[in-house]
Amino acid sequence: MSSGPITTIVADFGGVLSTPLASAFGAVREHLELPPEALGRAMAAVGAQRGAHPLNDLETGELPEAEFFALLGERLTAELGRDVVLRDFAERYWGALGPNDVLVEHLRRVRRGGYRMGLLTNNVREWEPRWRAMLPVEELFDEVVDSAAVGLRKPDPAIYALAGRELGVSGAQGLAIEDSVPGALSAVAAGFVTIGNVAFVAPQEHHERIAALHAAGVAEVVASWSELETMLS
Length: 233
Fold this sequence. Notes:
Structural class: alpha/beta
Order of helices and strands: EHHHHHHHEHHEHHEHEHEH
CATH topology of the largest domain: Rossmann fold
Low-confidence stretches: none
Strand order of the largest sheet: 3-2-1-4-5-6
Largest sheet: 6 strands, parallel
Shape: globular
């Protein structure tokens, strides 16, 4: 942990403040009867065609949601030899995603302890009403940094540097909570003390994820939110 005082906590949304993203994606994939790697292959093919990864452009606000899913649908249709329509992807995805109520309660207690709070998310411009409706955003967070609104995206450390400026803290005063390796890399590179979270990582993937988070430079890895709250108390 940092040798100086932590004054501010920055939390990720997906897989930290929400239930696992992989489960939600899995529910959509199952509904569409897609092979496990099909979406990844389709995104890679679209990226090769456009010269930029479509997810990066989607989450920095450059590519509209409708166009993103139309491009993926075309690639999947060509690969699988049947019509694949993704118009209702968001509806099904968000229907399978929920808030992490346990962490929300932990953060309420931490906030009462005097910490400033920030939310930093790689997200889709058109999805903002959905994730804001899922959380008590105004109650919990002093600042929100949304990749689609600011045109920056993890793993670029510039997005964490921006969060620090918005919150008025240097990196060493800020504690980042990240479950993904790209998120951890972004936070560490920006100077934030970073805690890796594997609470929602599948047990069979714990060892690999923990090793990768440590390699990214996190200070600690926790497997439960009570561990994190104990660190901050």
